[in-house]
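Weekly sync notes, structure subgroup
Attendees: PM, AL, DS (notes)

Item 1: joint prediction request from the bench team. They want all three components modeled as one assembly rather than separately. Inputs as received:
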Amino acid sequence: MLEAHNLTMHYQRHCALDGLNLKVEAGEVFCLLGANGAGKTTTINLFLNFITPTAGQAKVDGVDVTLDPNAARRAIAYLPEQVMLYPTFTGVENLDYFSRLAGHRYNPEQLHEFLKQTGLPEKAHNRLINTYSKGMRQKVGLAIALAKQAKALLLDEPTSGLDPQASFEFSETVSQLAASGKAILMATHDLFRVKESGTRAGIMKQGRLMATVETNNLNASDLEQLYLHHMRHDPKNVVTA
Amino acid sequence: MILTIAKQEFRGLCRDGRYRLTVGLLLVLILASTAFGWANYHDLIEQAEHAAEHDYQRWRNQDPTHPHNAAHYGNYAFKTPRPLAIIDGGIEPYIGASLYYGAHQPSEVAFPPAQDATALQRFGDLGVGDVARALLPLLAILLSFGAFASEREQGTLRQLLSLGVKPSSLLWGKALGIASALAVVLIPAGLFGLAVAFALSPAEYRLDEIERAGLLGLTYTLYLGIFLFLSLAISARCRTARSALTILLVFWVVTVFALPRGLLDLGARFYPSPSSDFEKAYSADMNKETEAHVDKVFKKVFAQYKVSKEEELPFDITALYMKASDEGSLPAIDRYFNKRFDIYQSQNRFLEWGALLSPAAGLTLVSMALTGNDLEQHRDFVQQVETQRRNMNNLMTDYMLQHQEKRKEGDELKGNPALWGKLPPFVYHQPSWEVALKPYYIALCILGLWFLMTLLYARRSVTQASLF
Amino acid sequence: MKTLDLMSLEWRLLRRDRAFWLTTLAAVSILVYGFSNGHLWMRGQTVRITEQVLQDQQGFKELHHLAEKFKQENQVLPQGLEQREGDPRYALGFAANHHQYDCRRPRPLASLAVGQSDLTSYCLPVTVWGVEGREDEGNSTGLENPLRLLLGRFDAAFAIILLMPICILVISYDLLSRERELGTLPLLLSQPVTLRRLLKLRFGLRIALFIAFCLLALALCLAYSGANFTDPRTLVEAALWLVITATYLLFWFACAFWVNCRGGTSAEHVLQLAGLWLLLVVIMPGCLNLALKQIYPSLSRMDYIDKVRGTSVAVEKKKSALLGKYLGDHPDLVAGNKKVNTDDYIQSRILIADETERTLAPIKSNFRQHYAKQQAFVEDFRFISPAVTYQHIANILTGQDGPRHQRFLDAAEAHHQALRAFYFPLFNEDGPNFGAYDAIPTFNFKEQTLTLMVKATSTALLGILIPSVICFIIGMRRLQKPLFELG
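Output from the run, pasted for the record:
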């Protein structure tokens, strides 16, 4: 579903992404781990064609994103780290607005259903966004992603700044989505969530994918050890566990 | 502490390429418009002196002719411009600098230069005064809109205050820093103004002119201070720099460009400018009153000589008729003159009180008054010319009265160069600045009030400013 | 996604955009206030002109009746000059008492702009002896508050040229950057709608609404104020005016579009747009004005006065030679016997009038030529700023431009010359049987042809449209680049 072939991104002299090869199948949750600046967000931006790769290809559902960005964007739903919405619209109105932009038209019941699905309390649905907390905005963002009925989801550090309960609920939803056959690429720092909802995890450092692991083979502390190992050592050799 | 902040602010501004560019452009603009104003001033003065000299000579060299004929030929009075007119031309382009005075009634305006110009003049002359009134406030806004709002957005405001800097010291420091950045433009312009006033004015008016220049500088500084403190206040009140900038820009456009026009047009709705009815009423009243007065005088003379017709009088009554008709017309002339200028004054009062809404409106009035190109000084000029006109007519009729014996056909009364020479050339007396400024004390006070209020507002806003 | 759907989405955003609606409301109020000011001025002129025309007709009728009455009653013929000047049976008497005012009537759209019309007299008394008040020597416009002339009127044209761009700035400076600063841009961009399309629609909707509201308000004002749109010429002029005004407003939207597409923060956009406004509306026209005055400095009116006075002294001398014993200004003041040789006096007076006009002609034509040069300069350089272009064409379309006044002066002068040509031969052999009332020349003023107006408007239209299109294209190209700062 999501494919990266030798994907490379240079900013002047700085190399943000260096020959990334990656494949996320339908039903899979692929988590990108790594320090700030390791290239996680760059990868997501490249899939969205917000930026043009220096070399290599990013494909969504078999379509090269640079050739037909709109087709690719139809196939992906995106949840930014900070979900920002129109403050003068209510939650439902924002959802409706973005769904229509994505080409869907829902009746009010369906819209409320999407919001309920993400766990947004019903009494908040018709309040203006500027009264929402970060978690609530995140839920509307997820509802927008759900309502888009995309084949693939790109999640950029979706749980950062959420309280434990919200974070848990979020992971549940992600797992359900994967189970319903979506391909999910998630950049995150939350090793625990990776173990809970991820099927595979990739560790990135300085623009390179250092390792890819199946998460069901590992427990959370193994994952942590592996992560720390890669962070402490020189990124010359790619190790596959 | 305050000095440190001021220095830091000033240095920061100086490093900004945009500031250097703007200041450079402004200085060039001021220089260009002064150079132009200077040349224009010299032309005007030369022309005025030349024309006045010529016209007076022509008056004196008239062939012997009937004195009333000579009065009809009349004279032109020229108003010598003040050196400060280089800075602010005021209403001069719309009234001209010359007035004709002759027999019967005064004239008002002759050949205003604006009539010979294209519609382009309506965009403004871009003189030094215009630049200072319209563009320098913009510079003040640009330099200060971010003073607090940007620091808040960058998060440095919290840091500053966490160091124990008092918000008010921050305000004074920043105000001082920005003021010094503004002074880079203001001080050269101000010094230049003083130099002009000193160098160009004739000795008898020099002191007055220098005082006027000083006051002008003070008024403009006060005006800029209003914009400076208002900008700082808004910057402290607004959450983002962009909203501060937008609010200030709209304030600038509205108060500098829109309100002065709008207010004066509003004034003209309440006090409509004299129409053709006014003119008709004027000439009707004047004719009626003159006739009545002449009748009265004639009746008295007839009674005195116990005659019923002018032919029966032992002397020619023409001179008496002239005198009576002159006297008879004066009350109407004065009345309508005052009525007309009172209407203008009432209209302008909207601008004066309008200074409460728009400091630029008040500044326009005060600046014109100090540079000698306002309505009141024009009124004074017209009145001086009218006095001269009356002197001339009195001289002529008195001569006629002295020679009112009956004459044969072909032997008319004629004045001679000796008579013409009795009329001194017209010299315009400039009022001192106290007199010139007097009608505008309200505007000046309102400007002061604005300054004070914005200062207090800035202080309040800074101490109440949110840190986030 | 269909454009219409997208439009309805944009409309939702716009509906909640308080700044847009407040600004549009302010813009419309400003325009209506400006219009009412212009209308007041125009109505004042119309009333005065109507009165004047009525008065002139009345006067003519009365004079005509008087002449007929005198003829029927066989009144005694006048003895002296004074009496003859008062007797309408003579051409001299009729000409002396028949007052004709030549008036520059406001055009149907005159309420939209005061233009130069407040500086010049619009009603000139024209007689066989001259056109009075032409150079404002009399009291024709000396009655306006000079400060009001200096500051200018708050008319619709002023509101459009100076204030509407600021309204447009407030509406559109952050149409793209707002999304970025709000943080909604990434989410928006992840949708299958290109930014170009979205921005095109966003601007399109606002441009259409804002311009529609402004123009509708003014069109309603025009209709309400009694402009006669059944007259095809008025209709065409109004259409031209609406098109050029819409284009001028469009230009400022195009600037905002371009600035938005350049990236940067909203605060930077405000600065850039305000700078552009300052440059195009204040500084460029001001500098052009300065340049004009440098290149074609106003001819000295003092010099003019000097020359005129010199001429009149010379003429005065000839006058005394010609008239001998008669006093030029007051033939009634001649002492003693008032029976004078009237015909001799009239012939001399004609000679003097000719002499005066001949001597002053070159000086006056000098001024005319100078004005024409200045006007040509402005026309050559009007395209440096759309504000100048717009002001120029708006004055033409509303009939408030300087050249129209010059044409009016020419027409008045032609009228005066026709009167001379008509009356002078009659004066020379004047008898008490003047009856060619219908042949007395009347004022005839030809407006500029519609073709010329259409042509001028098209040029101006191009002059404003081309920079607008360039701004749009540059903006579009900038948006094409996928690399777009998101932060």
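Discussion: Confidence is low (pLDDT under 50) at residues 136-140, 325-330, 332-340 of chain C.
Action: AL to compare against the crosslinking data before next sync.
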